[in-house]
Write a structure and sequence with these properties.
Strand content: under 5%
Largest sheet: none
Shape: elongated
Number of strands: 0
Radius of gyration: 28 Å
Order of helices and strands: HHHH
Oligomer: single chain
Distance between the termini: 75 Å
Number of helices: 4
Structural class: mainly alpha
């Protein structure tokens, strides 16, 4: 890694240049001090720490959550193991002919 420019610390990882958005945050004093100490130990910035934390948060799904009963059914359906080889279209046609005859 190249030496950091004056007034900037060396940072780990790669980011697209110019992909930042200035934001003012109000932090608890103790949290800010701990973050600054951690960033010095790990050659990064407090901004990078906050950014990495926010990027690591799980993305909320916009789908409606499943009810507990539906979740149980989904988990049960996923535990079933196939009992034979995968069936093709011809196998399905043969099954329908056996089941319903030549109606």
């Amino acid at each position: 890694m190249s030496a950091p420019s004056k007034g900037r610390r060396a940072t780990k990882g790669t980011r697209a240049p110019g992909r930042t958005r200035p934001t003012n945050l109000s932090l608890d004093v103790e949290a800010a001090l701990r973050g600054e100490a951690y960033s010095r130990l790990h050659a990064t910035t407090l901004s990078r720490l906050v950014s990495d934390f926010l990027l690591a948060l799980p993305v909320e799904s916009r789908e409606r959550p499943l009810s507990p009963a539906v979740r149980r059914l989904v988990s049960l359906a996923g535990k079933r193991k196939p009992t034979g080889p995968p069936l093709g279209e011809e196998d399905y046609r043969a099954y329908l002919l056996r089941k319903y005859g030549g109606r």
